[in-house]
Structures are given as C-alpha cells and as structure tokens.
Amino acid sequence: MKKALIIASLGLASVLSFSAGAAVHQVTAEQAQNLQSMGTISVSQIGSAPMDMRQELAAKAQQEGASSYRIIEAHTGDTWHATAELYK
User: Fold this and answer.
1) Per residue in 42-72, pLDDT tens?
2) Which residues belong to any copy of the YdgH/BhsA/McbA-like domain (predicted)?
3) Which terminus of the chain is more solvent-facing, meaning fewer CB atoms within 10 Å of its CB: N or C?
C-alpha cells in the first residue's frame, strides 16, 4: 500500500514539475502587442466546463510551440468553441 502511494506521489510530482516548466500562459490584448504572432488555433467540445476550454487551448498552444495565447473568440452553452491567437 505504501509503495503504491509513494509511486503515485512521485508520478504526480513529476507531472506537476514538467507542467510548471513548460507552461503556456494566457495574455491580454495589451500584453500581446509586444509579442510575435504565430497564427491561431481553435478548440470545440460538447458538454464540458469553460475551464476545460482554457486547459485545452493551453495544451494545444504548447503543442504548437507557443509561449502564450490570447482568446479572440469564445462561444459557450451546451457546446463551446474557442479560437486563440498564439505568440512566441
């Protein structure tokens, strides 16, 4: 039991430390004025929370190699859709 708990704790710690080192953050329009655009991304989903939208945008931005993103369009309800501009 202790061994499983230790392994789970170490796994969680490694995931958290990786996420903190490679974090992509959301910026405001003012902050984006000093950044170089890399293009846009879009995400859509049915029946989830708005926080899921931010997590999905951040993950997709990280996959594209962006350091930050700015949401430029968002629609919520039973389904949601968001578009974000990526920055280096």
Assistant:
1) 999 887 777 788 899 999 999 999 999 999 9
2) 35-88
3) N
Tokens 């931010």 locate to 54
CA 23/CA 61 separation, integer angstroms = 10
What is the residue type of 46? I
User: Quick one: CA dihedral 8, 9, 13, 14, positive or negative?
Assistant: negative
Name the token pair of 74.
Answer: 């968002």
CATH class (in words) of the domain with range 25-87: alpha beta
Q: Where do the structural domains in the chain lie, given as residue ranges?
A: 25-87
Tokens for 44?
Answer: 């859509």
